[in-house]
Every structure is written in structure tokens, then in C-alpha cells.
Amino acid sequence: MSDAGSSSPLSPVAVVGIGADGWTGLSGGAREVLRAAEVIIGGHRQLRLLPEECAAERVAWPSPLRPAVPGLLAAHAGRRVAVLASGDPMFYGIGRTLAEVAEAGAV
């Protein structure tokens, strides 16, 4: 999916599952993804679980979520984006929604 007003494709989006234990429950790889991100998108509760060392711009999901996803991804095209998710994000959660909305390989 590309922004109609731009010729640059969307950057891949990293989906990171985060539990109630927050930062301490994440793998080293997940922590590195979040440290390297320029934008982190998630629910208010999930965003509050991150330490200050994650210096990325934090964006809370709007409501309703699904209609807002294409514009939200387009608004951050060209940036390293990480999405926080709970549960199994690629089966029932936000990862599946992103995969349905974004172009192939973008998630």
C-alpha cells in the first residue's frame, strides 16, 4: 500500500507482542526492535509499559482502529515503525489486521 500523494512505499512494520510484564518480558531481539524504532504504535496501556530508553515517537491507536490503519501507516511511511500487540498478534490481533491492510511483505 502506498500513500496516494507519495511515490515512496511503506517501510516494513515490526509487530512486537508485549505482555502484562512489559519490558522485562521481552526478548533481547524485541527490545532492540523497539530501541531502533522511530515510531511505536500501540494501546495506551502498552505504551506505558515501555521505558524511557525507547525514545521513539509514541502513537496511541485511534478508535475506531481498522479504518484508521491505512492513513496511520501512510503518515509514517519511510520511518522505522514498531507496533505493540498483546496475545498472539499475528493470528487474532493487530498483526493480522495490519497484514490485511498493508501491501505484501510490509508487516
UniProtKB/TrEMBL annotation:
<keyword id="KW-0808">Transferase</keyword>
<dbReference type="GO" id="GO:0009236">
    <property type="term" value="P:cobalamin biosynthetic process"/>
</dbReference>
<protein>
    <submittedName>
        <fullName>Cobalamin biosynthesis bifunctional protein CbiET</fullName>
    </submittedName>
</protein>
<dbReference type="InterPro" id="IPR050714">
    <property type="entry name" value="Cobalamin_biosynth_MTase"/>
</dbReference>
<comment type="pathway">
    <text>Cofactor biosynthesis; adenosylcobalamin biosynthesis.</text>
</comment>
<dbReference type="InterPro" id="IPR000878">
    <property type="entry name" value="4pyrrol_Mease"/>
</dbReference>
<dbReference type="Pfam" id="PF00590">
    <property type="entry name" value="TP_methylase"/>
</dbReference>
<feature type="domain" description="Tetrapyrrole methylase">
    <location>
        <begin position="13"/>
        <end position="104"/>
    </location>
</feature>
<dbReference type="InterPro" id="IPR035996">
    <property type="entry name" value="4pyrrol_Methylase_sf"/>
</dbReference>
<dbReference type="GO" id="GO:0008168">
    <property type="term" value="F:methyltransferase activity"/>
</dbReference>
<keyword id="KW-0489">Methyltransferase</keyword>
<dbReference type="GO" id="GO:0032259">
    <property type="term" value="P:methylation"/>
</dbReference>
<dbReference type="InterPro" id="IPR014777">
    <property type="entry name" value="4pyrrole_Mease_sub1"/>
</dbReference>
<keyword id="KW-0949">S-adenosyl-L-methionine</keyword>
<keyword id="KW-0169">Cobalamin biosynthesis</keyword>
